[in-house]
Amino acid sequence: MNTPVIGVLALQGDVREHLTALATADAVARPVRRPEELAAVDGLVVPGGESTTISKLAVLFGVMEPLRARVRAGMPVYGTCAGMIMLADKILDPRSGQETIGGIDMIVRRNAFGRQNESFEAAVDVKGVEGDPVEGVFIRAPWVESVGAEAEVLAEHGGHIVAVRQGNALATSFHPELTGDHRVHALFVDMVRAYRTPESL
After folding, report:
1. Catalytic residue among 17, 18, 157, 175
2. How far is Cα 57 from Cα 97, in angstroms, rounded to an integer?
3. Of the residues 17, 18, 81, 157, which is catalytic?
4. Whole-angstrom Cα distance, residue 33 to residue 35?
5. Against a cut of 0.85, is the pTM above it?
6. Pick from 76, 71, 147, 168: which is nearest to 58 by CA?
7. Does residue 135 carry a catalytic annotation?
8. For this structure, is 145 an active site residue?
9. 103 contacts 75 by C-beta, under 8 angstroms
10. Pair 106, 144: CB distance under 8 Å
């Protein structure tokens, strides 16, 4: 059985919903807070929440540098909303002291779709996800201002980029874990499974 073990960075944000979505998509899902827990997973989800808080806690818990190293080494990683900001190589309007993990050559604008009370849902066609459009939940969501040559745009909404992939790194502005539709998580689980397969031969 090629069942991948996928962690969810459990410092802040909607961790439980991602754990449930990953389990539904046939992965073993575990919370990750410390370097030794990160070392035991095949891939990682960086959840929504508050990107500045996640950044500071990742440094505090000693997991930021190991995370950067594993992403550079090719570990699959998926970021939603604040997680998308964490995977950006550059933030257009960072808070003071805010750091990112990096991994996707993109420039992201924080809270681009508006404040909490301007949250909305919208159908989004995501490249690589078969069937009907994905119902995207946008909560204080970022959008991608621009991408580099290595990054592939997977989805747009309202003329703005809302899903990107670069190699083993995937990011969405929206929260698929909140809808009960786990096809985006299944796409990521397949990415992790493909990453693991050469090592298990």
Report:
1. 175
2. 12
3. 81
4. 7
5. yes
6. 71
7. no
8. no
9. no
10. yes
- φ, ψ of residue 168 to 5 degrees: the values are -95, 10
Q: What is the spatial distance between Cα 160 and Cα 124, in angstroms, rounded to a whole number?
A: 12
Phi, psi angle pair for 60, to nearest 5° = -60, -40
Written as tens digits, the pLDDT of the chain (201 aa) is 579 999 999 999 999 999 999 999 999 999 999 999 999 999 999 999 999 999 999 999 999 999 999 999 999 999 999 999 999 999 987 777 789 999 999 999 988 888 777 889 999 999 999 999 999 999 999 999 999 999 999 999 999 999 999 999 999 999 999 999 999 999 999 999 999 876 543
Q: Is 175 a catalytic residue?
A: yes
Contacts of 69 (CB under 8 A, 6+ apart): none
Three-state secondary structure readout of 82-144: HHHHHHEEEECCCCCCCCCCCCEEEEEECCCCCCHHHCEEEEECCCCCCCCCEEEEECCCCEE
| Dihedral sign computed on CA atoms, order 186, 70, 72, 177 | positive
Q: Which among 17, 18, 157, 177 is annotated as catalytic?
A: 177
